[in-house]
Amino acid sequence: VTTVSSIIYAMKSIHLSRVTDVNFVEELRNEIAILKTLDHPHIVRAMETYEHRNQIFIVMELCSGGDLYSRDPYTEEEAARITSSILSAIGYMHSKGFTHRDLKYENILFMSNDPQSEIKLIDFGMCLFVRFG
């Protein structure tokens, strides 16, 4: 929680000493670098990142409304709104030269429990920079 605005954020904490997969650390650093470059209303925003001793902390927007599975089934109107948001985020990523490579229900979160809540794409560990065209 910031004391100025009272906004609540999520914090991902990774103990590097507990990580046995070298690829995971590489994917995590890749995810952090990519999140710092992306600025779109339907992509989770990383506010700050910190490294201290053998830990990495990522402070990001809190998406407290669950993933796409948590509200299934959807009306046609809801599905159209959600699909439009996802395609907008993917189009933005492609315009910046990135491809997500791990789009699935679990990586699309609602910002809140509100029925009209916006969605956010998360988990950019497998994301790649690609030259399109």
Automatic annotation (TrEMBL):
Keywords: ATP-binding, Kinase, Nucleotide-binding, Serine/threonine-protein kinase, Transferase. SMART domains: S_TKc (SM00220). Residues 1-133 form the Protein kinase domain. This is Protein kinase domain-containing protein. SUPFAM superfamilies: Protein kinase-like (PK-like). It holds the Pfam family Pkinase. GO terms for molecular function: ATP binding; protein serine/threonine kinase activity.
